[in-house]
Amino acid sequence: MIVVYRADDVLAAVERGLRIDFEVYDTGSVDVEMGAEDAESLVFDTNGRRDAPVPLLGSESSDFTFHGRRWRIILNGSLGGRGLPLPAALAGAAGLMFTTLVSRLVFQLATSQRRALARGRVAAAGDRDRRSLERDLHDGAQQRLLSASLALARARSRVSSDPVAQELLGAASDELSRSLEELRELAQGLHPAVLSNHGLAVAAEGLAARAPVPVDLHMELDGRLPQPVEVAAYYILCEALANAAKHACATRISVQVRQTSARLTLEVADDGVGGARTVQGSGLRGLADRVESLDGRFSVTSQRGRGTCVRATIPFG
Amino acid sequence: MRSGDDPVRVVIAEDSVLLREGLAHLLGDAGLVVVGSCDDAPSLLATVERTQPDLALIDVRMPPTHTDEGLRAAHLIRARWPGVAVVVLSQYVEVRLASELIASGAERVGYLLKDRVADVAEFVAAIRRVACGGSSLDPMVVSQLLARRHDADEIRRLTVRELEVLGFMAQGLSNQAIANRLVVTVRAVEKHVTAIFDKLGIAATADAHRRVLAVLAYLRRMG
Questions:
Q1: Chain A to chain B, count of Cβ pairs less than 8 Å apart?
Q2: Is the C-alpha dihedral spanning B27, B33, B37, B43 positive or negative?
Q3: Buried b vs exposed e over A284-315: b needs ≥16 C-beta within 10 Å?
Q4: B148-179 b/e (C-beta count within 10 Å ≥ 16 → b)
Q5: Which of A198, A180, A16, A92 is CA-nearest to residue B61?
Q6: In the prediction, which pLDDT does A107 show?
Q7: Mutual orientation of helices B208-220 and B160-171 as an angle, nearest 10°?
Q8: pLDDT tens digits, residue range A107-160?
Q9: Beta-sheet pairing, B33-38 with A18-25
Q10: Given B23, B94, B147, which is nearest A202 (Cβ)?
Q11: Contact, A178 vs B118, CB < 8 A?
């Protein structure tokens, strides 16, 4: 098909409110949506660079291979926000102008996916380390401290005639109890043993029950899921519940955990102040990496004054 | 089944030698008799079958997988030898796991955070209570149950003191034990208990073993 177009037509159309929304998919793992603002600034950024063409002459969707993976691009053009379809030639022109940036974008996506994958591997390795550290703590320090406090208790019962010794041993016991408590919390923070032993449903119930804000928990789970999926879901719940209580000042949190044939979906919505951001280095960013490294999707919707909703979909199997 | 004033016969299942010995000494000092010690689930089951103890004290995490062998063994013991009381010690306590453990009845069962053994007096009291047919649920499980129902209208009608008493009842404490904890008279506790049963609409029963079931059944009913 030969499409005739002039760049001026496109620019004129942009002035009249040309809007091109496009989505780029690879095997279904990443979903990029851009608003008109982004699209326009990208249109003007394409001058003369068409080095990696994507066949997109007016067609609405196209599959292509890039960096060893299959991708699909879908373009939706409209004029003036009224949903009018673009004239074919104009669509073709816009499509071609997008060629370069799409390839650039795809390249960025591929790169960021590789990075996310790498970060996911780092996270998984970290999980293993933390798990073995937790086991070391449990088998070592925790057991020793516990048997030390038993010995102290026995000693205490044998010096009942000496009030000073009683008091000293009592104080030592209290100190030991506090150390044990701190150690238990530390071990729990390192690795949630309840999750690996009993799965997401039991662990999630516990999180909901211990949350400082009332949680409506709805779960449709059928047995155990692969460990990385359970771990990611658990940490998302932890972080989202903690954020809702700490930063969002929520008074009610709703949690939905649903397992379908091949994916786990998770939604944590609160009635708090909103305005959360997934900035670099924040807990949410790390969670997004985890989910992306599992080929899942992660999103945070948080408009000021309208609460926060954290959603994740993680495929498995 | 134990009778009269015979000493309580206990089997301990705990894979840490240090702790196993500590527990044995502790229970021995308190006048209980340790009739067997084991370090994994299969030997626990064999020992229970052989010695028919009053009570098995079981650590959840034991070889080979160090996950929940002990909990599974506790379920087996309850099903196979209903006369043997079990007290499960765990590094974490969860409502769901507690519910599963008492699903077949709250008699002769305990579920405690492992750290609780450090408070010797209370721990020994809990062991005795369970050996005598009672129950002992960790305070953390009870507080989670209460938190789940905290906005139920009936629960909101309780006073702070009544909530406290309700928590102790759910843990399995008798009126006398609750009175000791709160440093009040048994008579005062009885009054609170009556008020609680009135407000929650639970049929009153003086038997601590029976009422723990009633209270737990109430708390587990999801709001």
A1: 90
A2: negative
A3: bbbbbbbbbbbbbbbebebeeeebbbbbbbbe
A4: bbeebeebeebeeebbebbbbbbbbbbbebbb
A5: A198
A6: 63
A7: 110
A8: 666 666 677 777 777 888 888 888 888 888 888 888 999 999 999 988 888 888
A9: unpaired
A10: B94
A11: no
CB–CB of A57/A92 below 8 Å? Answer: yes
Give SS3 for A33. Answer: strand
**Cβ-contact B87, B112 below 8 angstroms:** yes
Sheet with B55-59, strands from edge to edge, namely B33-38, B9-13, B55-59, B85-90, B109-113, B135-137
pLDDT band at A30 (very low <50, low <70, confident <90, very high): very low
Quick check: B91 and A138 CB within 8 A?
A: yes
pLDDT of residue B49: 97
Question: Left (φ > 0), alpha (ψ -120 to 50) or beta: where does A241 sit?
Answer: alpha
pLDDT at position A21:
53
Number of Cβ within 10 Å of residue A252's Cβ equals 14
Predicted pLDDT of residue A131? 87
**Once rounded to an integer, what is the mean pLDDT over residues A224-236?**
92
Residue B213 and residue B223 in contact, taking contact as beta carbons nearer than 8 Å: no
Would you state the pLDDT for residue B189? Answer: 94
SS3 A82: coil
Whole-number Cα distances in Å, A67 to A107, A108, A301: 8, 11, 31
B62 contacts B39 by C-beta, under 8 angstroms: yes
Sequence-separated (6 or more) residues with CB below 8 Å from residue A210:
B144, B147
Distance of CA B153 to the CA centre of its chain: 28
User: Which region among A68-82, B19-33, B194-208 has the lowest average model confidence (pLDDT)?
Assistant: A68-82
Distance in angstroms (rounded) separating the CA atoms of residues B178 and B193: 10
Mean pLDDT of chain B: 89
Q: Establish if B17 touches chain A: CB-CB under 8 angstroms.
A: no
Q: Does B31 touch chain A (CB under 8 A)?
A: no
- For residue B67, list chain A residues with Cβ-Cβ distance below 8 A: 193, 196-197
Cα angle for residues A237, A184, A154 (degrees, 5° grid): 155
The residue behind tokens 């009126």 is B175
B42 cis-preceded (ω within 30 degrees of 0): no
From chain B, pick out residues whose CB is under 8 angstroms from the CB of A154. Answer: 25-26, 29, 120
pLDDT at B108: 93
User: Does pLDDT of B125 surpass 80?
Assistant: yes
Going edge to edge, which strands form the sheet with A18-25? A32-33, A18-25, A69-79, A61-66
Q: Find tokens 């999630």 and name the residue.
A: A204
Query: B147-162: per-residue pLDDT in tens?
Result: 777 667 788 888 999 9
Distance in angstroms (rounded) separating the CA atoms of residues A175 and A171: 6
**Is the pLDDT assigned to residue A106 strictly greater than 70?**
no
